[in-house]
Amino acid sequence: MNWINALQVAIQYMEDHLLENMTMEQIAAQAHISPFHFQRTFALLTDVTVAEYIKRRRLTLAAHELLQSDHKIIDLAFKYGYDTPESFSKAFRRQHGIAPSEARKNSNAVQSYNRLVIQVSLKGAEPMKYKIVEHPEFTLVGVKQTFSYTDGEHLQGIGKMWQEAWTSGTEDRLFELNKGDIPGLLGVVVDQSEILEKQMQYWIATTYDGEVPEGLSSFTMPASKWSVFEVEGPMPESMQLQWKRIVSEWFPSNPYEHAYMPELEVYPGPNQPPQIWIPIK
Fold first, then answer.
1. How many angstroms separate the CA atoms of 3 and 16, rounded?
2. pTM listed for this prediction
3. Per residue in 242-271, pLDDT tens?
4. Were 147 and a residue from 62, 132, 154, 163 both cysteine, which residue would form a disulfide, CB within 3.0 to 4.6 Å?
């Protein structure tokens, strides 16, 4: 429950500073986790990015003030973080379906996005298959790319990366190189924000022990304890659903914490269910 409380503190911080230029570092610090992991957890729980949540809340408050006061639209634009009335009107119309001037003139209904309250999901009808594994240090080889995780930009890039790995034959090559007790292909998420601001690294790799093959890179995974979850159902929807259940159901109900090392998605091969490996402590 501690991490749920930490997220609530971070949400309250956002609410208290909606009219200020908050940084992601300031917000994540309230939850005592890195900006990368805060944004990842927030998006999994809410299906919206932190930046989008802040924008929706500001435009909700702006609409309320527009309808309840006679303040000039230009003044509201500046108050809620927009450089020009035009940019404010464009964002306002995108959210509320009507221009600010029209909303005030006709007292039309506007969209209200209320303050988030994160709660533990009390579900138990569908069991989650998992096991706890202690694994020594191991080496991966594969291909990697760096993405911005601002506004979820990395999600589209990772999808293209997998498509390129399939069409280029990289997937087949990595399957053939696989050596180790984690079979198949791995999707590895590595937080790079301490080196490159708002950046993450994604690997398509396999376990391997030996000289790094030409054209590939290597990465050493430290020894850790892992919680390993099976993923059942059609992909990729079932993978995303399992991630959400892990965050919203499993962690709040178990005594483990995320160790904040790279996470793994494991694809063993045909007729074998994928897995999610999360480092725990």
1. 20
2. 0.78
3. 988 888 788 877 888 888 889 999 999 888
4. 154
Secondary structure letter of residue 260 according to DSSP: -
Nearest-CA neighbor of 231 among 275, 168, 174? 275
Q: 134 in a domain, yes or no?
A: yes
Q: What is the CA angle 248-184-42, rounded to 5?
A: 20
Tokens 């790079």 locate to 192
Please check whether residues 250 and 139 belong to one and the same domain. Answer: yes
Question: Mind listing the pLDDT tens digit for each residue in 206-252?
Answer: 999 889 999 999 999 999 999 999 998 888 888 888 988 888 788 87
Q: How many CB atoms lie within 10 A of CB 161?
A: 20
Task: For residue 213, give the 3-state DSSP assignment.
Answer: coil
Q: What is the DSSP string of 130-192?
A: EEEEEE--EEEEEEEEEEE-GGGHHHHHHHHHHHHHHHTTHHHHHHHH--SSS-SEEEEEEE-
Cβ pair 100, 106 in contact under 8 A: no
